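Hi C.,

You asked whether I'd gotten around to modeling the 196-residue construct. I have! Everything is below, sequence then structure, no commentary in between.
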Amino acid sequence: MNGTFGNVYEHREWARAYATLEFPGTYYLGFRDLPALIRRYDHGSRALDFGCGTGRSTRLLRNLGLNVIRADISQAMLDQARALDPSGEYHRVPGDITGEFAPGSFCIILAAVRFDNMPTEEKAEALSGLRTLLAPGRCLLLVVSSIAIYVNEWASFSTRDFSENRHASDGDRVRIIMLDVPNCCPVEDAVCTDAH
């Protein structure tokens, strides 16, 4: 990828808009099976929400009875999450997450749509780091977007203004507009067909 990969979620306006988002429209498809998977593989109580954002996925994990530790790269998102849940444990992790926690600390790690807007060259390192944080025999759950999300119209997303998305390949930037938030500005993601 060329140039700097921006983090739109670091902007306070985006964080405020994102804070109210739950599981409408297309998001439902990505999250509907998580409770059953978590119940199937959870044999402990400590979970890491890697890329917790404003806490949407954290709330899902907490509602399933897990003790959730939250980690995100964006201070703006963590500030919104903390405003919604002041009692939580929050970690701003701008780089390698393995320095924040002891190996084998978690029974479940959830990374919900966090690898979509991560530069390709950082994905393998991040996944390897997360793996070291799992207790033996535990579960790393990834929610990733299919390439189809960047070339079709959806209840929660629009790509009609970005015809260049149709020709994108691994590592290329793609843009998408989130329709379930008030400001509806484009978000930049990175194509990673290896994750599908």
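If it helps when you're writing up: Residues 1-5 have pLDDT under 50 and may be disordered.

Thanks,
B.
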